[in-house]
Amino acid sequence: MVRILIINPGSTSTKVAFFEDEKSVWEEKIQYSHDDLNHFSHVMDQYEMRLRDIESILDKKNLNIKSLSAVVGRGGPFRPLKSGTYEISEDVLQDIRDGNVQTEHISNIAVFLASHIAIQANIKAFFVDPVSVDEMEPVARISGIPEIQRKCLAHALNIRAVAHQASKELGKSIGELNFIAVHLGGGISICPICKGRIIDVNNANEEGPFSPERSGTLPVSSLAKLCYSGEKTYPEMKKRLVGNGGMAAYLGTNDSREVEQRIQQGDSQAKLVYQAMAYQIAKEIGAMSTVLNGKVDAILLTGGMAHSLILVGWIKKRVSFIAPIRIYPGEHEMEAMALGVLRVLRGKEKVRHYRRERT
Amino acid sequence: MKRLYRILVINPGSTSTKIAVFSDGEAIFSNSIKHSTDELSQFKRIIDQLNYRLQIIRKILDGNNVDLKKLDSVVGRGGLLRPIPGGTYAVNQKMLKDLNTAKRGEHASNLGGIIAHRLGKALGIPAFIVDPVVVDEMESLARISGHPTIERRSIFHALNQKAVARQAAFDLGKPYKKINLIVVHLGGGISVGCHINGRVVDVNNALDGDGPFGPERAGGLPSGQLAELCFSEKYSYEEIKKMLVGQGGIVAYLGTNDMKKIESRMKAGDAHARLIVGAMAYQVAKTVGSMAAVLKGHVDGIVLTGGLARDKEFVRLIRERISWIGRILIYPGEDEMLALAQGAMKALKNTKCVLEY
After folding, report:
1. What is the pLDDT of residue A359?
2. A283 and B294: CB-CB below 8 Å?
3. Domain spans of chain B?
4. I need a surface site. Which of A16, B159, B219, B271 has the fewest CB within 10 A?
5. Does an H or E element contain B316, and which?
6. Does ipTM come in above 0.95?
7. What is the CATH number of domain B159-332?
8. Considering only residues 283 to 312 of chain A, which have any Cβ-Cβ distance to chain B shorter than 8 Å?
9. What is the pLDDT of chain B when averaged over all its residues?
10. Partner A contacted by B293 (CB < 8 A)
């Protein structure tokens, strides 16, 4: 039996889980208040505190780390990487210490936490499909002006996990199939997956459909005019695009359940906006279908809003001509990490090695 | 015997006035009058050019022995009017008022309706305009952008889109009012329109910037990165506007908007040129795919038109990504004069289809 410890630090919590093979034995969450975190100027400084709290959970659960087969930590915004399961090595740790990452983010300390425990237990540590997974084709990186390059940032962990799950259900390997994966969360990522590789994505912060909190693509001339109007500061404008954009801006809430209630009560504005979101999601799926030349084995809907029957229904009626639709509601990060490790430990997939770029 | 209609077509552009006489579908006379900047600079407003342009038009018609008495109607390029559905409109007082006062903006094409009216009135024949740039048949769903302060607008190559869509419908043996088409106008800017039963229910705005980049325009861009650029203090508003329209797209990447030159660079092994043209085709294909979703996959035809539809390699790159969606029809170039004449002819044959502004 494979016994895996999973460590997933978020901005205000750390989730810890223990899996035996595919089965979650327990999952715990350590919550941090604003006051707990306030005095750290860098996220890396939270390392000691986060480690201590994880260790006390292991004590409480009576889990002897020597009994573990592997530890896995959430992958952060490292430099652009191919998708897959990576063994944590000194190379990735050194790159993070040196700041060779895309942004400072709490998930960067996950690999340190995982590595520390693994060394003590004399086992291997891994990270799986970090947010910096980038397998975009050169042609997809061109925006429309040389000053701006399209970036690949996707909900890679969940998207790849769902693609693996769908492949299993279809009785094939991920390397034989093409998918369009749609992550329906606070931000929406839509990617064509060509034989396992995420070859394009609307960067959910920048492009594609608007989402509960983000504006997505906006007409550029109007946007530029707004930027130069002097009415808004840059931080205000950023908030408008990510955080307070999209559904929240139109309807004053980012809660899709609330919007659905309002629709049921006959709120026609809520209906128009919610339908428009589905419309834009469908258009982005249509766009990505041409990236795969129409050769799509399935469209995979996942994330929290994939629970919504009306939203899924509206999307479905516009895109079912492309491929059959499969629905994987919610987001199961802990399981996704466990399964990623299981695949390499069982030899179903080759483990990847992070190498520092020589300068 | 079938009656042949004879139509005078007037198309005022910013530095030229094109005129033509059509006998049914055939141009029997055409002329393009160039106006120098010197001549035009004496006029403060577009409307001030009216008598100047009228005089030249009369002189040219006279000098070429065009028999005005044989004309059945005059049609002008439509101007900046309020948003209206596509079709052929009789020039009326309300329209003249909006054009005279440039209520919706100054544009040379505002003179089209006015000149048609003047000439038509003198000859006692009807004056029309056809599918002006303000044609707006967008569904309310398509107007939502992603933020309530910005609305998606319908501004596109309506005249050519509508003309080729009608032609394609004819060639496919269906009425335009009963066909689903995706029309791709490949010009300096690129518009991809979704035509459902005769209405363009969604279209990327080639001017305001969503959809693919074109030879001179940036198209849609990542919004956060664009905002960052705007606030970087490296560029003035005027500079950013140029980057988006005029100096964006192909010309920004490759230093020229001349596709023939770029073709030969590609043939000579210029990998960067190949990448950029490939990216333009990639984005055109993606926009076509998005419109196919609007049509729920019920696509009777995908129509490629405009100057770039002549570029075989570019068309091949688009085609390989979208041919699974529907049949592809190619109508290269753009014939505004013919489109205007056809609009007028339709109105003469069947007065029921004349719309009132």
Report:
1. 57
2. yes
3. 6-136+336-356, 159-332
4. B271
5. helix B312-322
6. no
7. 3.30.420.40
8. 283-291, 293-295
9. 94
10. yes
